[in-house]
Sequence to fold (133 residues):
Amino acid sequence: MTKKGDDNLRDRLSRALPAAMKARDRPAMTALRSAVAAIDNAGAVDPTQAASTGSGLGAARAAHSEFAGTVAGVGAAEVKRRSLSQAQMEAIVRTEIADRETAATGYERAGQLQHAERLRAEAKVLRSHLTTT
Fold:
């Protein structure tokens, strides 16, 4: 486990990805990409909220009602993403770890030891990036 002060978990995961790619470490690449995507997905804005606020895509549709799916102006469809706290990001990564551990157990029961080993390796990579408390 690492302790990284004010360093953002998503940033640490993103910075670790090029090294994993260079080392051709498939379990690390898979785990890091998946965790970064899960954090990014959690920060996404609900499209119904964006349309109802009068900003972003909802406002753009009102400007060009005769052209479906078009937007008016640069950045008209941009909506600010939700900001996740460090604790929220850690909870997402812990869920990713738990999912891998659960799936690994299932693979072991099915006699698929290579798959189980790969998933446990991915969980280990993610665990190594969590902060100590």
